[in-house]
User: Fold this.
Amino acid sequence: MTAAHTAIANPADPRHWQEVDAAYQQLLRDVQRSEPHPWLLVQTLATTVSRRVLYGALSLEPGWRLLDVGTGFGPVAVEAAGAFGCLAVGVDVDVDVLARTARVRDALRGSTWLADPPGGRPTSGNTEMAAPGASASDVAGDVVLTAGDARQLPFADEAFDAVTARFVLQHLPSPTTTAAELVRVVRPGGVVCVVEADDGLSLTYPEPPAVVRRLQDAYVAAQHARGGDRFMGRKVASLLDDVGVEVTSVLVMPQAGYGVVPPSSLGRCLLHDRLAAVADEIVMLGLLSYDEVRDGLEAIATSDFGAQTAVDGHLAVIGRRR
Ligand SMILES: C[S@@+](CC[C@H](N)C(=O)[O-])C[C@H]1O[C@@H](n2cnc3c(N)ncnc32)[C@H](O)[C@@H]1O
Assistant:
């Protein structure tokens, strides 16, 4: 086993994350061969700055078992395992995403970032995953990926020292059930951290054309109709308090920039594909006409919005299970 992971020396130094960044860039290149704009992966990369600010506030310790719920491409699991020497378990309902996340994990095993699993580094296959509830033999600094539903987690009570859920509750119609599950699987005194977006903390100046703004508003309305909530960030602290978390901090992790985002950029493709994915739903719900959706998507794909200031704040609520 290689256990060369080290505590964070200077996480603000981009060189600290070089191996992780290289592994995710490689995944992006691989995925783009069959899927030109994998929006969730692009979003994972686009929110790196605000994510990494979080780690300093989490007080994770080497050897801790960390559960990351709705792990997606696994950035929190991979980064926390390597930076702190935790055994990170990433759980998600989407097994296709997990298979891709496993490629990043496998590429990093045996590097200076992740430890090798018991029995050494796998030589074949890149989709190795643990059965639900597996102990993963407690290898500090490694990541285990497993399929499971956040509303009914496949883990025993108090199985983890810390639990994280980033950008997950906003998608679920029953956030209280999920919040209670997060608390159930963490030991008393263990760390609970939920990170959410809140559209009240996002702004762009000058605003995009009206046809695009209308489409963005319809996207928010469609998510609400599905039981999701784009204003989840402000609600997380009360939600956690209600299910047994002593909230110790609420942080805003900002990202901001100024410049022209050309139609061909990944950021613009991310916006386009995120909205295109719900185009039919928006029309079916009667939020916009087919023509309005088409015009909005076309403007995103082709129009020059000029230089814009874009500000985004993500809210992290951190606490301890009572
Ligand atoms: C926006 S992504 C966030 C991924 C990751 N946490 C991150 O910070 O990049 C939301 C993830 O939640 C997962 N998800 C949605 N509903 C879920 C559920 N009921 N149980 C577990 N995961 C779920 C999705 O498959 C997706 O991977």
User: Anything to note?
Assistant: The first strand starts at residue 65 and ends at 69. The beta strands are 65-69, 87-92, 143-147, 160-166, 186-205, 245-260, 307-321. Residues 40, 44, 70-73, 75-76, 92-94, 97, 149-151, 166-168, 171-172 surround S-adenosylmethionine (CB under 6 Å).
